[in-house]
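U., I forgot to send this yesterday:
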Amino acid sequence: MRLVSVVVAVGVVTASVIAIAAASTGDATPQRLDAKIITAGNGKIALVDPASSWLISVNPDGSGRRLLARCGRSFTACVIRAFAWSPNGRRLLFFRASGLRTYSSYSLYVVEADGHNVRRLVSCGHCGLIVGSRAAWSPNGSSIAFSATNGLFVVDVNGGLARRLTRGLDFDPAWSPNGSKIVFSRGDSLYAVNPDGSALTKLTSVGRHAADPAWSPDGKQLTFDGPDQIYVVDADGSHQRLLLDGSRGSGPGTPSWSPDGTRILFFNTPGTPGAFTAEVWVMKPDGTDQRRLYHSGCCVGSWFPPIWSPNGKSIAISADSAGGVLVMNSDGTDGRTLSRRPSDIAWQPIR
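Result:
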């Protein structure tokens, strides 16, 4: 499953095929969402339009479009990707690469939620592209962990040099809820390290490739994907369990916990090479009560991991075979189109 998402990440970057509905692309205005989808705790959804190199935010009903970041007119190429809201929803991090050497000239930026004060924190080379890796906020919002080709780093949001934590092809950092550990992927294993780079510990291994680690809200467990598999493991690396096992290239993958910790959301692409479809499922943390929330027609090419709303009452999914970005209730009902084409997505918490 990870292979599919890597191909998508690179393909989206190189082809620049994503466009946001009702932006500068000429797409029709998105349908309005039912009012019950817009509930307390949920802010705007961030999306990116590579056609215009705009990072925007929009309300879940399609209204309130706001420009957050763009590239200067002098740049011959520009890519914005892998963005995430801070825990309090007041800032957004993103990677941006500009110029002729786009694929090796990424920098990490932050911007205020209203689009003001775009700041570059660090220039980091391939950091925005490596294996589709994302960056992670510390729970208090003061620091960001990110991957580069030569290790894992942490940078202070208020300024300062990036600090190296590890050396190697390390990616997908995930900060524990209490801020004491950063878990990341290295080859077929998950590792944990303290935010100061000490106490590097191997947690688990799946034999081929481990990726997309996600902490349970209480910090007691992690879920992650292997080669078309989903696992759960205790925070200390014990009691590793295989929850789902799929056929090669079909998923499942990219698991994430609901805010209340009672469900795991994941993406699936059943089918055969050249004829995969897009599905979104939920299950309990023990692998039971598996329910399919969405199924698209053939064939999925570009897709991004599905996400929970901050209050857990809604989800957003993104795939070309789904018709773009969809927002729906967490039981799969009342789905509405937010964007006519797929995009990376991040949902702002309001606290």
